[in-house]
Write a structure and sequence with these properties.
By secondary structure, the chain is an alpha+beta fold. The chain has four helices and seven strands; from the N terminus they run E-H-H-E-E-E-H-E-H-E-E. It starts with 6 loop residues before the first strand and ends with a strand.
């Protein structure tokens, strides 16, 4: 049995298991301060499979169970291009975090921080200038977590997202120093 815990690229055979992971997270956070407004429609199997095929979906496992998942790429909504970001960075110099989730049974154990530190190390090794993300309005839990990780609030924009409709998103950035 694989006891190693680390962030690794997901395999296409794991897509259904990853979908189940997100569905379990959605159920478990009802009534908490985490409100990503995900649903059965998003993150969906098509999003997961596409993210795996693009080698952008990472999972963190413990004893062969998925306990965290995140999509990392350098693509953001076009509406975010005119934002006054801290770093003057091209897309290829930017890591964007999407759909970051940790199993509720493992929250408060430093796993999110461990994963984030791995993301940060990888970004620095790949000569990235900055890490950015958006957090949907009302997801106070995620805002608190990323602020603890050192992210700075940049701006709030209203964007139409097919999964949630027209919503406000809070934009955050972490400048990477070599």
């Amino acid at each position: 049995m694989n006891n190693m815990s680390s962030l690794r690229k997901a395999e296409i055979e794991e897509a259904v298991e990853i979908l189940q992971f997100y569905q379990n997270v959605i159920k478990s956070i009802k009534g908490s301060e985490f409100k990503p407004k995900w649903s059965k429609d998003y993150p969906n199997l098509e999003f997961i499979e596409t993210s795996i095929e693009n080698e952008e979906l990472y999972i963190y496992t413990e004893n062969d169970n998925i306990i965290a998942s995140v999509v990392l790429n350098n693509r953001f909504d076009p509406e975010y291009e005119d934002i006054n970001w801290i770093a003057n960075a091209e897309p290829y110099e930017t890591t964007i975090i999407h759909t970051f989730a940790v199993d509720r049974n493992f929250t408060g154990k430093g796993i999110g921080k461990k994963i984030f530190n791995q993301i940060k190390r990888n970004a620095i090794e790949n000569n990235q200038k900055t890490i950015r993300l958006d957090i949907i309005d009302g997801n106070i839990g995620a805002q608190n977590v990323f602020e603890k990780f050192g992210f700075k609030y940049i701006d709030t924009v209203e964007v139409f997202h097919k999964a949630v409709g027209l919503e406000k998103f809070h934009l955050y950035e972490l400048l990477l120093l070599k």
